[in-house]
Design a protein that fits this description.
Nucleotidyltransferase, domain 5, eleven-stranded mixed β-sheet, Rossmann fold, alpha/beta, disordered C terminus, nine-stranded mixed β-sheet, about 550 residues, 2 domains, 18 helices
Length: about 550
């Protein structure tokens, strides 16, 4: 039934285009929108025509930066609003300020420069967050907080900069399509890490690549920076180019070209030699996916410019993500299993140390028990999985067995179970995560509520600066200050700790690093975090704050401008 409704939408769109004297959306855009005082055209961005003319219900675009996709998407949203009366689009960006700026710099200039659009736009509903054309609306929203996502229904959601957006809020935005006849989605972004955000969506689509046919030997290939770019006289790997190379007169980077993998000659990357090809035609994914690289704009982005920019980023990952549109993770992004292997020891040396525990709640609860050494090193002596229905019985047994002096368990969602445990374990605190916690270092113990009616709700709680503590865990693992005694959970433990990724996301209108789960198999990572907080709370409980000798900072700046 939903497919039939969508097909009627496609037919209605074609009818509306025909009534306006056009065959495609591209024709409408070139006729009625302008750029820099002239009618818009696709010169240099010819690849966009294929994407705009795709009538799939869901479209995914994995892209490099500065290749005109956001400009294209803005014009698509305006065209749909004009062509289909009563059609509402929500265009999202990571933060409200970014959305407002997009309206000012991308939407407003297109509308104001077009006699046709400026005549149709409502003067009563025309501001930094919404445009109205007849009964159609274009909303600009920040994908940062829940309230942005629940205000209006929509027929199409365009999600820009997916990987820097709050993924949970994006899901809420998609729920605004439930009552739509059309329920269209467009997701676009530069990638960050493999298997996350736009890369995950692209992998779950009918993946199209803009293939090149060599103008010398007719070999078909997909241009790849590291595989096909050649610099005359340079025989080393491109990944090894440094700024010193550009000071060498013999380094002929300005002559860089894309070589055909078969004949080795410089390939012509212009549209006459390009064709979109679906690389997984046998997979029945509902979304149409497009991978857009700088090689799709060869007259605008020179191969030599890519070579030059390869050394202009502080992080190699930013060059991969931004300039090449390739997902990549580095040491600032995640822990590796090789690093975790070095943290596993064969046996526990023993000694008169204090013990703490961390408890991650779920249908299966994971408990981490650790010894606290004088230099704040944690040695994980036991990791145990406990069914939820056995937690109230089994956790106190283990606490008594190891004589744990302090413990922290997550407050939600099994609050009642936590409070039952607290009646038995007076040294256990309920942990509450704080996102973007600016007012505390790692944690803050909450005062007990004096109101007896509310006491049970807030007794023995600790607020935790979640992302700061995960940063500290990364440091401590790499510096040998968190160790684990080998057991049957070693492989699963490594899986859980590598599932969390350190990514950029907007929080309170600021782009910051946050830790995100990839698959959800991260429970031992959280139980370790709670155990670490418990270890640092020992000093608080005894009246003297445990010292924090380990200092660690990450680079948190944006990629350097080109």
């Amino acid at each position: 039934m939903k497919d039939d409704i969508f097909l009627r939408h496609v037919a209605r769109l074609k009818s509306s285009l025909s009534a306006h004297g056009h065959n495609t959306i591209c024709d409408f855009i070139t006729e009625h929108t302008y750029i820099r005082g002239a009618r818009f055209d696709f010169h240099g961005h010819e690849y966009q025509r294929k994407i705009l003319e795709d009538q799939s219900q869901n479209i995914v675009i994995l892209k490099s930066a500065q290749i005109g996709i956001s400009e294209m998407s803005a014009r698509l949203a305006l065209a749909k609003a004009v062509l289909i009366n009563g059609f509402s689009t929500i265009y999202t960006l990571p933060a409200a300020s970014a959305a407002q700026n997009f309206m000012k710099t991308r939407i407003d200039p297109v509308v104001n420069s077009s006699p046709y659009l400026s005549e149709l736009v409502s003067k009563d509903v025309d501001n930094s967050s919404v445009k109205r054309f007849g009964e159609s609306y274009v909303y600009l929203k920040g994908a940062q907080v829940d309230r942005q996502a629940i205000s209006v229904p929509a027929d199409m959601i365009v999600m820009d900069e997916v990987d820097n957006s709050n993924q949970d809020v994006l899901t809420l935005f998609e729920s605004r399509l439930i009552h739509s006849k059309y329920a269209l989605t467009v997701k676009l972004s530069t990638p960050t890490i493999p298997g996350y955000g736009i890369d995950l969506a692209y992998k779950q689509s009918r993946r199209s690549l803009n293939m090149c046919k060599c103008n010398h030997c007719n070999e078909w290939f997909y241009p790849d920076y590291f595989e096909h770019v050649r610099i005359p006289g340079f025989t080393d790997e491109l990944d090894k180019i440094t700024k010193r190379h550009f000071a060498d007169a013999g380094f002929k980077w300005t002559e860089a070209y894309v070589a055909c993998p078969k004949c080795g000659l410089a390939a012509d990357l212009t549209p006459a030699h390009r064709e979109w090809v679906v690389e997984n035609p046998d997979e029945n994914f509902p979304a149409a996916g497009y991978r857009v690289s700088p090689f799709d704009c060869p007259t605008i982005i020179k191969t030599s410019a890519l070579v030059k920019s390869s050394t202009e980023y502080e992080r190699k990952q930013d060059f991969y993500n931004q300039r090449l549109g390739i997902p990549m993770e580095d040491k600032e992004t995640s822990l590796s299993k090789d690093e975790l292997d070095s943290c596993i020891i064969s046996e526990y040396p023993g000694g008169g140390f204090s013990y703490v525990f961390g408890l991650d709640m779920g249908m299966t609860c994971w408990m981490t028990i650790a010894a606290v050494l004088p230099d704040n090193t944690l040695i994980i002596v036991k990791v145990v999985a406990i069914p939820l229905f056995q937690v109230v019985e089994e956790v106190p047994k283990l606490v008594r067995q190891y004589k744990c002096r302090m413990g922290v368990a997550d407050h939600q969602p099994y609050t009642e179970t936590i409070y039952r445990l607290q009646q038995v374990l007076t040294n256990m605190f309920a942990g509450i995560y704080l996102n973007n916690a600016r007012n505390i270092d790692l944690f803050k113990v909450r005062d007990q509520e004096k109101d007896s009616d509310k006491a049970q709700e807030t007794v023995r709680q600790v607020s935790i600066a979640r992302d700061k503590v995960f940063d500290l865990i990364m440091l401590m693992l790499r510096s040998g200050h968190i160790l684990k005694v080998s057991d049957e959970h070693d492989d699963l433990w490594k899986d859980h700790l590598t599932d969390q990724k350190r990514l950029r996301e907007f929080r309170d209108e600021e782009l910051v690093f946050v830790w995100k789960k990839a698959t959800g198999m991260d429970h031992m990572h959280h139980s370790l975090l709670y155990a670490l907080i418990a270890s640092r709370m020992l000093g608080v409980a005894s009246g003297s704050q445990v010292s924090l000798p380990l200092v660690f900072t990450f680079k948190t700046g944006l990629p350097k401008p080109r």
